[in-house]
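Go through this:
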Amino acid sequence: QVQLVESGGGSVQAGGSLRLSCAASGYTRSTYSMGWFRQAPGKEREGVAQIDSDGSTSYVDSVKGRFTISKDNAKNTLYLQMNSLKPEDTAMYYCARARTFWFRPPVLPGTGPNAGNFDVWGQGTQVTVSS
């Protein structure tokens, strides 16, 4: 059974840092594109960052220069390093896996990944940034 489990969320003050992890199990193929998404109360889910099998990355404009997505194929783990956090980054953060291993979901410049291209989701980890 394919499973994604996020960890690393918490409460920090503005300007602080957190590193989210997403441990994948139930599959070993490393060619899937992976993404991080977030959803704040009362708002739609937003694509934050995507990493493809060749290591290419894409970010929504609001996190560029502050967040870094990476992966460790040997550990089957996805990461999101978040620096210079702002109160508007407060949300539940989810990792997700693309629908197929051979498909690289297109990302429009500045918009982040599209949730419709991902079909395996973790349960989420809460990030709260206070001012």
Observations:
- The longest strand covers residues 18-25.
- The mean pLDDT is 95.
- The chain is about 0% helix and 45% strand.
- Residues 60 and 111 are 5 Å apart (CA to CA).
